[in-house]
Amino acid sequence: MGDAEDIIYDKEIENEFEVFKKGEDVVDFRTVSWQKASIIFLKVIFATGVLSIPTAMFSLGAVGGGFSVIGWGLLNTYTAIVQGNFRNRHAGCHSIADMANVLGGKVLREVVGLLFIVAYVLCTGSGILGVSIALNVFSTHGACTVWFTFVATVIVVLAASVRKFHQIGWLTYAGFFSIYAAVFIVVIAVTTRTRPATAPPTGDYDLGWFAVPPSTTFVDGMTATATIFVSSAGTSAFLPVISEMRNPKEYNKAVYWCMALVQASYLTFALVVYRWCGQYVANPSIGSAGHTVKIVSYAIGLVGLIVSACLYLHVASKYVFVRILRDSRHLQHNTVIHWATWLGTVIGLAAVAFIICEAVPIFSFLIALTGSVCFAPMAICLPAWLWLYDHWDYWKGNVLFKAYWLMHWGMIALGLFILGGGTYGVVQQIIDAYASGLIGGAFDCADNSGSVGT
Questions:
Q1: Which residue range or ranges hold the Amino acid transporter transmembrane domain (predicted)?
Q2: Mean pLDDT per 10-residue section of the chain, whose length is 454 residues
Q3: By C-alpha distance, which of 102, 125, 130, 100 is closest to 113?
Q4: Of 303, 280, 352, 284, which is closest to residue 133 (Cα–Cα)?
Q5: Is 53 inside a domain boundary?
Q6: How many domains does the chain have?
Q7: How far, in Å, CA of 46 to CA of 25, rounded?
Q8: What is the C-alpha to C-alpha distance for residues 143 and 127, in angstroms, rounded to an integer?
């Protein structure tokens, strides 16, 4: 009898701590195992990033680019763990904005909440852009690119409108293996060519491969850095998943499995593609091995591109949905308000993503802009602040504790540097692209998105 009472008590405590409650008369959202959480994390991270890193290598070189992939990967893994630990220490945290509320109250919550929405709407835009590029490839540009982007948006909305992470779990399995296989085919294919697909077909050419580049501008270097950083920086999307896990304490295990595989794959794939393509890496890199391989790879990877955009849109929509209906019976009951709020949020945010990807239709620029504007403060500065909030007394400890404490202040400074320098670099490159005609007007039918990025 005592054991039964303890179980009941524990469930009551758990319900007080969690956003989604357990009960007989409510929709149960907490059904995700740590294995499925790991696959969801994999699909969130291993998505558009792997298609943009080889392009960034040209500005940093193989050595600088390789160390950048490793360094940012380790930092983003660490901040993912910091965020998860903070969430599991503080009741009622569903998103990074809820955690910001613990730090600085309502004002900081609104600022971070806006950053969160903007970040994942931009990510959704990059995912929609990837899908539209694939549709363009299949059709040999048989229709206006804007129409392909619209069709891609509709497909993504239909996939993202599924309510629970558990229900879209099978999509994440298919999506991950789809994009992984597509990129793997490209990596193998580029090594079989005598010259890059986009290089001059005859005569001598400069590959543009450097271990250490002889020179690079601040603008190019910061854009490349922001691109590599953002490839694994979307860890704030992990937090809503914790709220739907059966056992949130298994979060760290899922993160380590995810990030180990992602970083090993990023490093291997990016270095091989850059070594064989140099400055002739396509943008996205999935088009680097020639037209035939490009069609095959996009055909195999299409599911992965759709699921990536679907997850980004789902994460942003779930934040808004919970924010609107939290502490209301409509959050976990199948009412008209429940469904109208959910579907309206998904469609509304998708429409914004559609407009953004038409305004900035070059893949690597959209990725880098997301990293510098949104993820620098949200994935570097804020996690460092979260750690300082829970471990402020470390500054009173021994030398090692003080160094650890100061390291997190250094992380805040690093995040602000990427925010300022990265944003300047990307915006300048977008301005230059419009001035040179590389980007046409907004809602232009020209296929700007698949152009060579270097």
A1: 31-427
A2: 40 63 68 88 79 83 93 95 91 85 91 90 86 83 76 92 76 85 91 85 84 85 87 88 87 94 92 89 80 89 89 90 85 88 95 83 71 89 95 91 95 94 86 74 53 36
A3: 100
A4: 284
A5: yes
A6: 1
A7: 37
A8: 20
> What per-residue string of b and e applies to 244-253 under the rule 16 or more CB within 10 Å gives b?
bbeebebbee
Residue with tokens 């990293």: 371
The dihedral built from the CA positions of residue 347, 353, 357 and 363, taken in this order, carries a sign that is: negative
Picking from 432, 409, 428, the residue whose alpha carbon sits closest to that of residue 420 is: 428
Q: How far apart are CA 268 and CA 264, in angstroms?
A: 6
> Is 443 within the bounds of a domain?
no
Instruction: Look at residues 280, 297, 312 and name the one whose alpha carbon lies nearest to residue 133.
Output: 297
- Looking up tokens 């990427």 gives 418
Beta bridge partners of 245: 32
Distance of CA 354 to the CA centre of its chain: 17
- Look at residue 451 in the predicted model and tell me its pLDDT: 41
* String of DSSP letters for 267-312: HHHHHHHHHHHGGG--SSGGGTT-HHHHHHHHHHHHHHHHHHHHHH
> Domain of 361: which CATH number?
1.20.1740.10
CA distance 79 to 429: 29
CB 287 within 8 A of CB 450: yes
For 340, the domain range is: 31-436
Is residue 19 in some structural domain? no
Examine residue 273 and state whether it is found in any structural domain, yes or no. yes
Say if residues 196 and 207 touch (Cβ distance below 8 Å).
yes
Termini Cα distance of the chain: 70
Contact yes or no for 190/277 (Cβ under 8 A): yes
> Cα dist. 158→200, 223, 287, 306 in Å?
42, 33, 27, 10
Element (H, E) at 36: helix 34-45
User: For residues 448 and 430, what is the distance between their CA atoms, to the nearest angstrom?
Assistant: 12
pLDDT the model gives residue 440: 57
Q: Which two tokens stand for residue 8?
A: 């009941």
Q: Which residue has the tokens 């998943």?
A: 241
CA 130 to CA 128: how far, in whole Å?
5
- CB within 8 A of 122, min separation 6: which ones? 353, 356, 366, 369, 370, 373, 374
CA nearest neighbour of 238 among 381, 92, 79: 79
